[in-house]
Write a structure and sequence with these properties.
The protein has 9 helices and 7 strands. The protein starts with 5 loop residues before the first strand and ends in a 9-residue tail after the last helix. The longest helix has 16 residues.
Length: 230
Amino acid sequence: MHRWTKKILLFNPNTTRAMTDRMVAVAAKVADQATELIPLTASHGVTYIANHADLARASEVVLETLPLHQAGIDATVIAAFGDPGLIAARGRFKRPVVGMAEAAMLTACMLGKRFSIISFTPAYVAMFGDLVALYRLDGRFAGVRVPDVGFSSVVNVQDELEDVLVALALKAVQDDGADVIIPGGAPLAGLSTRIAGRVPVPIVDPISAAVCQAETLVRLRGSDRRGEVA
């Protein structure tokens, strides 16, 4: 069977390059050998999405930036857990556009009955709840758990709060009835592998889920990119 190289644009709509690098490194471990991940970090906007205002700004950046980088691309992953600009981008491009949050949630629904999201700041509780409602997954949602302690660096937050995040995951399983856990937020990319042995249910890494879903959509679409436009 002929296997063409699948080119997947991984666009981080935040300006923090270290987050992009981490997500690419995590995604590369699960991507097919015939997949080329093309990283792109926003040239302007916010350093990371911390609230609804940042999410709106990141959505603008997505819609400003993606049209400039579609040539030769088979699929795009919007590499931010708020899925900024996802619905609008899908309406604009013919090729698949995948969001980290939606991919993680839908994957979680195939692994269990109820998923919970753990993250690192209270500001995300309402934001992630809104996403669950947008995707109409309320009936499969066990809630968001976040710590009551702060952190010094968003880039290193999973190192600082690893034990706290494990405790939140265990609470979600024991008290909320979650049978799948999603670490929510680009800075938590790769956390699932680190804590898998400490949590008794599947943990879905969002960037891994998004890239795998993008690969699947490209295969199902059967595109060899010839004669296509974005």
